[in-house]
Amino acid sequence: MAKPSRVLHQSSSAANGRRKLALVASKGSLDMAYPPLILANAARMSGIDVEMFFTFWGLDIITKKKMGKLSVATVGNPNMHPWFGIPTLLGALPGMSWAASWMMRGEIKKLGFPPVAEFVKLLVDAGANVYGCKMSMDMMKLTVDDLVEGATVLGAMEFMDLTEGAQIVFV
Amino acid sequence: MTEDILDTIEFDDDGFMVNAADWTEEIGRAIAEALEIELTDRHWKVINFARSDFEKTGEPPTLRRITQQTGVSMKEMYQLFPDGPAKLAANIAGLKKPTGCI
């Protein structure tokens, strides 16, 4: 039994104060976009500071033109067979990836999770810091205007400076 | 003075009320004071929703559910209840600790 107090709601803190979580999102498929978003949201809801670095394919998650159209692979995805019962050869048929992505979006919605674009906005509003990887952006010819509102561009070394003492999760 | 009220209430190890039915607005105010949160009308809007939703579902509402149903934005929720909006709202509303992921 413990009386309510501020202390009970503060997460165990790092040596220099608040606990901080750094997430590196490197994959841009629909299924792999959610883990970093869900973890970031759980951290913010627990009062943990969050820095999110989107690199390479992960950039699609925060790119305005791509974030609403992420899809799941039906070929070369070993998890696809038991779940959907789609053998790899059939997965290569036109429209298969579209159909599987459509199904997955439906399942995600049923669980009460928002679509990717809405989820990213929610995280920005929740105070998570969202960064696009500069090198990946140069390679894909993207500028900060292509990213979701609230995102900034950052180099990997700057990200290291920002995440000193943080717990780092790579997805 | 308000401290006395909390002494009469049973809390779990995380500081959440064990019996949601024992809650009154006065207890809510006392818990908020212990959490160092100054309650405004906007806080009450969230707390009252959490109470009524709990009566319907038996679970404290998730943060997303609160924002969708009350019109209080996500940004505002973090301003009203810094350091964990869904948990703090449930705590003040006398509900159990929320376990939802969203």
Features:
heterodimer; A: 171 residues; alpha/beta; Hypothetical Protein Ychn, Chain: A; 5-stranded parallel β-sheet; 8 helices; 5 strands; B: 102 residues; mainly alpha; 55% helix; globular
What does this structure look like?
The complex is a heterodimer of chains A (about 170) and B (about 100). Chain A is of the alpha/beta class and about 170 residues long. Chain A has helices at about 5-10, 30-45, 80-85, 90, 95-110, 115-125, 135-140, 155-160, and strands spanning about 20-25, 50-55, 130-135, 150-155, 165-170. Chain A has a domain at about 15-70 and about 115-170: Hypothetical Protein Ychn, Chain: A (3-Layer(aba) Sandwich). Chain A has eight helices and five strands. In chain A, α2 packs parallel to α6 (about 115-125). The longest helix of chain A has 16 residues, at about 30-45. Chain A is globular, with a radius of gyration of 18 Å. Chain A starts with 5 loop residues before the first helix and ends with a strand. Chain B has about 100 residues and is mainly alpha-helical. Chain B has one domain (about 1-90). In chain B, about 55% of the residues lie in helices and about 0% in strands. Chain B is built from six helices and no strands. Chain B has helices spanning about 1-5, 25-35, 40-55, 65-70, 75-80, 85-90. Chain B is globular and about 35 Å long. Chain B starts with a helix and ends in a 10-residue tail after the last helix. The interface between A and B is medium-sized, with 23 and 31 residues.
